Amino acid sequence: MSNVNILRASPEHIGAIYEITKRAFSIYKDNLHADAYLGALTETEADIAADIKDNAVFVAEKNQKILGCVRISALSKDVAYLYRFAVDDAERNNGVGAELLRAVIDYCNQHNFALIALHTNAKYYKLARYYYGMNFYVHSTDNSRGYIRALFIKELSEAAESADLECAFKK
Predict the structure, then answer these.
(1) What's the whole-model pTM score?
(2) Of 76, 130, 146, 151, which sits most exposed with the smallest number of CB within 10 A?
């Protein structure tokens, strides 16, 4: 995708992140086919501000419009956790998500994480295929949130094989 800038989010991006996240996770919830709780749908702008302050939050921007966002937090020295990955519905399949994910992978490599972990609905086939295409794999599943939730892993170094994933199971 050309002319898309990936930036670290700042407080001026909070409103756009809030709107894109709400819309994307409403679609995600519709695809769950379950009455499940999604924290993304209850978060506030203050929650987003805290993530910008305490974690790495990236936005995809084109012509001064935010097209997508993603957040990453350190769960341990080896494990980074990807969450709140959202792309504006009108921009899906245009490479925005891939650019955001590349920024996350670069960030995680620069900070010497051994792996990236994330959770998603195991039955949301389009999303699961997307992560497989980006070289993530399903480590395990659980039903703790009222739907089959898959823990996807992307190994970034040989240290991933010995990394303790207990911190990711708790997310």
Answers:
(1) 0.91
(2) 146
